Amino acid sequence: MMNIFVTGATGVLGTSLVPRLVEAGYTVSAMSRTEENDERLRRAGAHPVRVNLFDVEALKQVLVGHEAIYHLATKIPPVTQMGRSSAWLENDRLRRDGARNLVEATLAIGTIQTIIYPSFDFLYPSSGDTWLDAQTTPIKTATLSSTVEAEEAVARFAASDPSRRRGISLRLGSFYGPEAPSSWEMLNLARKGFGAFPGASTGYLPQVWLQDAINALLLALTEPVPSGIYDIVDDEPVTRAQMYTILAHAVGRKRLLALPDLLMRLMTGAKYADTSRSLRISNHLFKAVSSWQPIVPDARIGWDMMAQKQNK
């Protein structure tokens, strides 16, 4: 079976993806920086690897013998710091420079056939109720450029030898589910009677059930998905107004009080423009090239499932 190298293996995505890869029979090498994470990875069946993502020569040595890479590494700042541009610098470096270095190393050693990168879906211009997909030109602002450049690095890898190499970027909606700590925070806030979504209530919010995102990441590897960019979101996008109703229903309230937009601007700061757009995004392109079908097709079902799990 294939040897796979994973960055960000102990993050929200990696924690779910690594055991699935191991169960499928793959040999997984996972980048780790602490002994605690070493143990977590071993328990999941992976082999922890110490390597600096910003050292191309070291990456070349580690990647020899591998056939595929998942570049999951991120460093999302705490909620209290998300509004500061400086709080995102390490995350930007991991995305942009990490992807570039991995591609440089893989091109040098020649054994890697596939690179898969989980991007995110807040790259599009605000478009009201118009449907969007990966054929829509993304916005490349200071706050978004790192993930766009990571996608470009993955595309360069694929273009270097299209007959032998695949580069796939999956633009994920905001993921939710039992494995996502932010989902529990959102439900707890709803139980107190509040909802927090930046932007107009009529705007659409792209979301995806976390395990559906994991399934998409797996299928991108195991099925003959062509190189390219694909959107991984629920079948039925909902507006922010609908989300307030969905969360209220999930926690047994008649309604939620929306936090004032001024407060949301203060909380999200540099990220307000990114998170407040109306993004009605379709997943049809990925469905057309894979067997992927979301287990949870829309947020109404997913958030009710979350609340029921919390009540047990």
Automatic annotation (TrEMBL):
GO terms for molecular function: aldehyde dehydrogenase (NAD+) activity. One of its GO terms (cellular component) is cytoplasm. InterPro entries: Epimerase_deHydtase, NAD(P)-bd_dom_sf, NAD(P)-dependent_oxidoreduct. Coiled coil: none annotated. Residues 4-182 form the NAD-dependent epimerase/dehydratase domain. It comes from the Bacteria. This is Nucleoside-diphosphate sugar epimerase.
